[in-house]
Design a protein that fits this description.
The complex is a heterodimer of chains A (about 160) and B (about 190). By secondary structure, chain A is α+β, with helices and mostly antiparallel strands. Chain A is built from five helices and three strands, in the order ααβββααα. Chain A is globular, with a radius of gyration of 20 Å. Helix content of chain B is about 25%, strand content about 25%. The radius of gyration of chain B is 16 Å and the shape is globular. The chains are: A alpha+beta (about 160), B alpha/beta (about 190).
Chain lengths: ~160, ~190
């Protein structure tokens, strides 16, 4: 796995986006629990942060409307460096500095070929499964409250 | 390999800003930054790296000469400043090699002379070498600054820079953890006289 840079292929970028998204959604306690199950990760140095700031969230109506500023959200970011120079970045919602640092450390570890498969299996896969299950459960609960207005359509249809 | 920036980004940048302010208001007086405030990326010295980190951000285009180019990634990561290809487009010009011609830099306009570029030159030393005798605003009578590593025709180039006042370029000399500033108002005569 090469670091995402000009030379990285779109597959590498998509894969990294995938695990960074999973890490950004995982709370610090879940990350720490998964890291404890791994063999010790390489030592890391903080390059920047963890630091908390605001990011403007922009939206657009309908996908082709004019962009507008939806509002600001709190974001915590962190960048760490492993001994060999590999950089790990993390941007997470909220103000949990520990989550940002652990996510950055795991992002760096996932770029190391010798660690990639172990971290994928022990951290990313179970977290992704748990997040998908959580989304599925919310979607099912929402689906159960769905009201169909089919009767109105048939009345008008006559 | 990237190295970290300021250990305490807000306070360390403010201390460095204060040092630049002191250096500019007392031209030629050498200011020293605390050692270990950051780990400068090669080939920048502590003072050059700290000044760039304190003064540049996303709104200030920076030009690095070929010798300073290895620090480009570090600067872009920590300061987030755009790096431009031509020295004339830059608000801050960093030279680790030969001093670039002053008339090629942005000297501001008559209406807005403060929009001119600031030139940072990393010199060999600020305690030996040629003696510059400085006078002008901020100096009661005369101040002497010793600099090693400026071009031999520096006095002539500086006089030409001052002739366009209020337009002109301000100069910050950095060597290791020491820095001294020569604002465009300073008059220089060389020699021990």
């Amino acid at each position: 796995m090469t670091p995402a840079g000009p030379a990285a292929t779109s597959d590498d970028v998509a894969a990294r986006q995938g695990w960074m998204a999973v890490l950004a959604r995982a709370p610090a306690a879940a990350l720490a629990e998964r890291i404890a199950a791994l063999p010790p990760l390489p030592a890391h140095a903080r390059l920047r942060g963890p630091e908390t700031g605001l990011a403007m969230v922009r939206g657009r109506q309908g996908g082709d409307g004019a962009p507008f500023n939806l509002g600001e959200m709190t974001v915590t970011r962190c960048t760490v460096r492993l001994g060999d120079g590999t950089l790990g970045h993390a941007y997470v919602a909220g103000r949990d500095a520990r989550q940002a640092e652990l996510a950055a450390l795991l992002d760096a570890a996932l770029q190391r070929p010798e660690l990639h498969d172990a971290v994928m299996a022990a951290v990313i896969a179970p977290l992704a499964a748990a997040q998908a299950a959580g989304r599925g459960s919310v979607a099912r609960k929402a689906a159960a409250t769905r009201v169909a207005f089919a009767t109105m359509a048939t009345m008008r249809g006559e | 390999m990237l190295s970290p920036g300021f250990a305490d980004p807000a306070l360390d940048a403010q201390r460095c800003f204060r040092a630049v302010l002191e250096a500019t208001s007392r031209p030629g007086r050498v200011q020293r930054l605390a050692e270990g405030v950051l780990e400068p990326p090669a080939p920048l010295g502590l003072a050059a790296a700290a000044v760039l980190l304190s003064l540049t951000d996303a709104d200030t285009p920076v030009w690095l000469d070929a010798e300073a180019a290895p620090a480009a990634d570090w600067l872009r990561f920590h300061a987030g400043c755009p790096l431009v290809a031509a020295p004339g487009d830059a608000a801050f010009v960093m030279a680790c090699g030969a001093m670039p011609p002053l008339d090629g830099l942005n000297a501001g306009t008559e209406e807005a002379p403060h929009e001119s570029a600031t030139l940072l030159v990393q010199v060999a030393a600020l305690d030996r070498g040629v003696t510059l005798r400085l006078s002008g605003p901020g100096i009661a009578r005369e101040h002497r600054l010793r600099v090693a590593g400026l071009p031999p025709d520096f006095g002539l180039r500086w006089a030409r820079n001052g002739a366009g006042f209020p337009r002109g370029v301000d100069l910050v000399l950095c060597a290791g953890a020491a820095l001294a500033a020569l604002p465009r108002t300073v008059r220089i005569t060389e020699g021990d006289g």
